[in-house]
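Listing S7. Sequence submitted for prediction.
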Amino acid sequence: MSRHPLYPDTQAHILDTGEMLIQHRGFTALGLSELLREAGVPKGSFYHYFKSKEDFGVALLSRYFTDYDDQLQLGLGENAPGNQRERLLAYFARWVERAESHDHSNTCLAVKLSAEVSDLSEPMREVLKRGMDQVIARLAHAIQAGIAEGSLAAHPQPAELAESLYANWLGMALLSKVARNSTPLRRLLAETAHRLQPEP
């Protein structure tokens, strides 16, 4: 299969184009002909890499969560600036920054697609579940590390706290998107700082 003349990695180019379109239109509304037209690739190129539109969606979400996990490890890792509590709050602050620095159609892909595809596609739902579980696990590990280093007060269930925080941020991101207002996220950031109490 020949590569697109302007893009050395045709598969990545199709995924990049699809993600951009999905951010504005949603997964269901995006037609294959529109995707191919915007990407400037023939239908054969699409089916060389993806068996179906659903398979494309699975690949898109898998790539998204792989990249997200890489960024999360960097942001919460020991080489990131600050102590573990500061790193966690910086991670959640970036949710606010994202909401305020992009147009309202551009949001976290997990937030964008969770409600839309969970009942539509079991393979895509499974990728979302695995990806979100991985995020929660990273947050739980960071909370445990913060308790161990003394930057966070002890908590009886770090994993449950991580799951609760992530769920709150997913929900508030949807509310903020509907309201087209970052104020709910800013309120949640203050609440999160309160829940992630520093060691007295």
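Caption to Listing S7: primary sequence and predicted structure tokens for the chain studied. The two ends are 61 Å apart (CA to CA). Residues 42 and 194 are 53 Å apart (CA to CA).
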